[in-house]
Amino acid sequence: MSPLDPPRGLVDSSPEGLAVARVLRIERGHAEVWLDGDARLLPVSKKQLRACQPVTGDWAHVDVARGVVTGLAPRATCLRRRAPAARGGDQAVVANFDVALIVMGLDGDFSIRRAERYAALVATSGADAVVLLTKAASVTLAKEAVAAVADAVGDAPVHAIDVVAGVGLEVARRALGRRVGVVIGSSGAGKSTLTNHLLGEAHQPTREVRARDSRGRHTTVRRELFLLPGGGAIIDTPGLREVGLADDADLDDAFADLAGLAAGCRFGDCRHESEPGCAVRVAVDEGALAESRVEAWRRLREERATSQRRGR
Ligand SMILES: Nc1nc2c(ncn2[C@@H]2O[C@H](COP(=O)(O)OP(=O)(O)OP(=O)(O)O)[C@@H](O)[C@H]2O)c(=O)[nH]1
Ligand SMILES: [Mg+2]
Ligand SMILES: [Zn+2]
Description:
The protein is of the alpha/beta class. It has 10 helices and 13 strands. It has helices spanning about 10, 45-50, 110-125, 140-150, 170-175, 190-200, 250-255, 255-260, 280-285, 290-310; strands spanning about 20-25, 30-35, 40-45, 60-65, 70, 80, 90-95, 100-105, 130-135, 160, 180-185, 225, 235.
């Protein structure tokens, strides 16, 4: 089945007389959807825009006669991020993907803490996460970097690849398989380079990063879904400027292992430091939970608290 064919269940439950079509990208209040073997740029009804903006990957309800997107099917997975301060709340980024490929360069882009935040964010989306550390051919300590990141991101597999030098290309391909994936990561990390590799053609423009600090130039400007030749699909995205968890429920989602254990702590607001009756400490002492997980949880919780104080 092609990622452009709507799932049976969505077709059956869609409102009478409306088609179900996949959103490939969003542009100026319009959604480009795949309909009857063609990509069509359709306006989104005002009513729908007020309720919820469609995002790349959405299954849209389309009134074919009027040529309008009138609604959205419920999302199976959804990546959300904190909206820019002015707008408040949080914002859907992409929907209905199976796996997020967290792309991070082993150059100046490398940050274990950021990998940790990305993994936590993906955990709240309902999809799987895989971390791909790019530009591996030019560093000698790629193995150590992989181990350090693996320690920080919970269950997500971590691989070092180099798309330009041709290292780990098969690993990257297998990480996605024939699923629908989305690449996320900072500008210049190599998301479009990876997308092109998976597509087997240089479809997406890429641009060199600044030598001084490895920062990218925000080359990709919109999220777009592409079909892969061997099945599955990939959504390329612009670099994310901020990675933050939307709320405390997200934190529990992202640290389900820890949250489960914490239910057994004597105090409801246990910080799992040295409180008596702390079930998390017991698990750490027994080697059932990594101390680094607890530290990550504490850091992200602190970050949440700080951003809440700032009214975000
Ligand atoms: N050596 C090496 N260079 C890479 C690799 N991946 C990406 N690059 C280079 O890094 C630069 C940025 O890559 P892009 O693919 O444009 O980065 P991006 O993540 O799509 O960036 P934005 O679109 O700005 O978000 C380009 O010059 C790529 O050739 C890699 O695995 N190895
Ligand atoms: Mg790009
Ligand atoms: Zn505790």
